[in-house]
Design a protein that fits this description.
Number of helices of chain A: 28
Structural class of chain A: mainly alpha
Strand content of chain A: under 5%
Distance between the termini of chain B: 41 Å
Radius of gyration of chain B: 16 Å
Radius of gyration of chain A: 25 Å
Oligomer: heterodimer
Largest sheet of chain A: 2 strands, antiparallel
Order of helices and strands of chain A: HEHHHHHHHHHHHHEHHHHHHHHHHHHHHH
Number of strands of chain A: 2
Structural class of chain B: mainly alpha
Amino acid sequence: MRRMSILKKLVWFLVAGLGAVAVGIIATSRGERLNAVWLVAAAACIFVLGYRFYSRFIAYRVLELDETRATPAERKDDGRDFTPTNKWVVFGHHFAAIAGPGPLVGPILAAQFGYLPGTLWILIGGVLGGAVQDFVTLFCSIRRDGKSLGQMAKEEISSTAGWTALVGVLLIMIILIAVIALVVVNALKGSPWGLFTIAATIPIAFLMAFHLRYLRPGRILEGSLIGVTLVMAAVVGGRYVAESATLSHWFNYSGPALAWMIIIYGLAASILPVWLLLAPRDYLSTFVKLGTILALAVGILAARPLMHLPAISRFADGTGPIFAGKIFPFCFITIACGAISGFHSLISSGTTPKLITNETHARMIGYGSMLMESFVGIMAIVAAGVLQPGVYFAVNSPAGIVGETAGKAVATISGWGFPVTQAAMADLASKVGEITLFNRTGGAPSLAVGMAHIFSNVLGGTEVMAFWYHFAIMFEALFILTVLDAGTRVGRFMLQDLLGHIWKPLGRTGWYPGVVFTSMVVVGAWGYFLYQGVVDPLGGINSLWPLFGISNQLLATIALCVCTTILIKMKKTRYAWVTLAPLSWLVAVTMTASYQKIWSPDPRLGFLSHARMLSDHIASGAIPAAQIATTQRLIFNDRLDAAVTLVFAALVVLILVESGRHWWAYAAGSREPVLREAPAELSQLEA
Amino acid sequence: MVTLMLKLLKTLWTYLREVSGENDYARYRGRVAAEGGDPVTRQEFYDQRLQEKYSRPNRCC
């Protein structure tokens, strides 16, 4: 490595100094309101330093990236799957693929602990965990002709590890879709304006589909521009729908009704041809998503808002209203995407490695994209932090915790030391064009209120706050539904692949009865969890989001086990701590969270103790006869959630034992490590 | 200044065309033509790309 010039050293010293000052101000700020710019400055400095120094260390000391070695994109170039592509284009593809609703919703929910725990986890977890996982997985896949995580687990560890990865991916798909659908339901229930806007995206997608397939095939930018214009018109038009006594009735639904609509929509999206609904919605949501993230960054810097949430709230003790549990482990489960997300390893071992022109680009694409996502997570924390704490908790707390009526809710929340009034909530709801903002658990509405606050401060004032709120809701729901469409379809393919081993016709993706059957199984699975979340008196997020976090971190555990195994096989055991450190942390977090979610004696936290409490209530006659069937269903759901959590924990143990067995054998010399890399060839392309 | 702005806009447009995949067909056609093959139509190419793209995890949480 070349030595750094004095000038460069000085610049990096200044960046480090600014970062230290920003972190110092954040850490010592108590009582007075912190300007959000300090959070942005701390994140920018830490991420830039992490990229410059830590990723460089990993790239050249640990992985020894070789710029002269041909990548699969060059060696297997077929002009389709494998194509050497400009690194900035791959960066754009990769970032668009990894940045979903998780880095926005997770930090919003974790803000119940205050803004500091989530911020620190995103800063540290992003640099030392998430970005490392994405980068090393990408590198491993590049060296193996773009193989998937499951294939690498099978070849580099064992078939058991490969099967664990496959089952883990299928389970995470189901839980992920259920929980993000729940976020959408909670954002759109009783919101004619929001529902009209989202409903309008379906005919808009059809229109785009016909344009892209028949009128002007493949003219994606043109089609997307038409789509974005129409969606913006739908956001504006939504106000008139909401204000019309006749029309608003058609777009005003309860949570359970919306859950059914989403289940039917998911089934249709999985069965319909991909060009008709999924693809145009994906183009639409990608452009809206990237544009809005950019606008949010500009908005925060222009508005420089003050943080109103406390640095650490009283709910650090585990009694939080949104979800139960202490900072450790639940802050680290709640914020997965944004700090470390196992799902990213599927993208890093999917399309991206097949497009990379030069091995050295993996650093910017793998490590750099993840830091960008972490930055999105920091912006989400800012959006939550600018809300008054009373408002934040009134929007996010379920009725089962704070009370069914507005009066009870404000009394409970004010009693926690976060004053809020019915008048203030009614005024806010009116400003954002909603009937009520109480009990909107899920993160999306509070993020939308925060974004509307930031955007309206910069552009338009409070008069246009309703527009910005519904724009933010549209932005979140649009790309959540795209993840739902795409995830259901991929889940169906995976299930077909599995069932094809039992009965061959079920494995054929062109056999319509098989397509319908497997789609119904996948949709039925996530639909069940979604419905259970919607009718859950504790808000659903309390049980489903931790399940999602645990499953996501299970996938990260698998990815980091594969990465560590490969590092050991590369004779880089002395650097194995690079992946072992985040792996150890995730194992501690996942296992503790799993244990507490299953066996905690606190009924709000432990699934089994909650089931026991409900059983006791039935036995003691405390439950009215009319509600016994519903209560028994809740008991079943608790036990089901406990079983699912146990499966996740068992899979973590299984992959650890499988990997540990191999590591031990390599260390003891009883087994010779065999690296299954593609043969090295000299690159003919310019770096 | 105007020239610089136009240049920036052109770069942005080219980047968006590449990222969105709009330019993929032209590249594919050029490649097949160079190899003396028979390229599929733009619509067929678009359909095939979509099938490939949405048959594996491509959108994260």
